What we know:
The chain is an alpha+beta fold. The protein has helices at about 10-15, 25-35, 105-120, 150-160, 185-190, 190-205, 215-230, 235-250, 300-315, 335-345, 365-390; strands spanning about 40-50, 50-60, 70-80, 90-95, 125-130, 135, 145, 165, 175-180, 205-210, 260-270, 270-280, 285-290, 320, 350-355, 355-360.
Amino acid sequence: MSLPTLSPAEWNKLIASLSGSHLLQTWEWGQVKAQFGWKPQGIVWSEMGEGTIAYTKFTGNSSLPNRPLAAALILRRTLPIGGFAARLQVLYVSKGPILDWANAPLRGKVLDDLQALARQSGAIFIKIDPDVRLGDGIPGQLESQEDPTGLVVTANLKERGWRFSDEQIQFRNTVLIDLSPSEEEMLGRMKQKTRYNIRLAERKGVSIRVGTSADWGLLYRMYAETSLRDGFVIRSEDYYRTTWDTFSSNPPPPVGSVPTVEPLIAEVAGEPVAAVIVYRFAGKAWYLSGMSVDAHREKMPNYLLQWEAMRRAKAAGCTVYDLWGAPEAFIEMDPLWGVFRFKEGLGGKVVRTLGAWDYPTRPIIYRLYTQILPRLLDVMRRRGKERTRQISLGG
Length: 395
């Protein structure tokens, strides 16, 4: 079948035009992952006439297909296990595929093709984790609402043999802030203590500046300190520098189809004390990373940082600010509970999504994989913590 291909800029333009577009489906994200063992492959579904829907593989240097309906940036990884490496692969569609999930015929066609691609490639399984809403609000509270589309999609995946994944790579739930109201209204939606802490930071001399590539080393060291203090594992400095450099190479976007990154750094008397890394794409902003040191925490720099990030995202044309992560279970014992309470104070709304689902094409190997993976991850986390500790100590 002779079908058109897309250039990187056109891929992003297409992604931005579809319902549910996401930063982790951009061409730049695929290039980042390509530096760390993954092979990205873009797939576009479009209407070919007379109601026929077909897909094309993205290889670059052509124009958009007629009436694009869906897309998926598929990441392929070969598992380095002795002589089996050529045959043991996994496929992952991070925060995708992107389509109107309420459209049953389109949903069926996309899932059919992804399942067939997984089988044809000999992959152990393919994983998807699209932002399909299950509901808004904290379950059991008055403002909680369920989304009928999410319930239908969940049932459909189960019928097809997909399994809710034990490996939830991205956060399943998050907190979204509506940036469309005025700044006064946005402040009014915050909790009183949050507004107080924003003003406190301003009174105590906290200032915010936009970071540059010269700050990458500083930001990583601050991130390493944060991870040790708060007990989470981060990746290598090379990974974050590659990510930041890839997205910061884009100029400030005149339109929403150019993904960019902006670091914001809080300082007290010229001393960096906290920072956030904010990405923007297709009218949405994501707060993916935050870091701070112990000094001057009583001056509440993180509150002013988030407020400035919201203001700058709004000024850049974004209408949604994704605070990236909420508890899996909304109980105080959840590891994310403290961070969630901070995010909730900013006036956001809880959004619960479908989460990651796996389609096993080699069930026996998949079962072994899911049994061995947690042990490997534990080893990797221990090594990661030790590496981070050495970085924090200057080793």
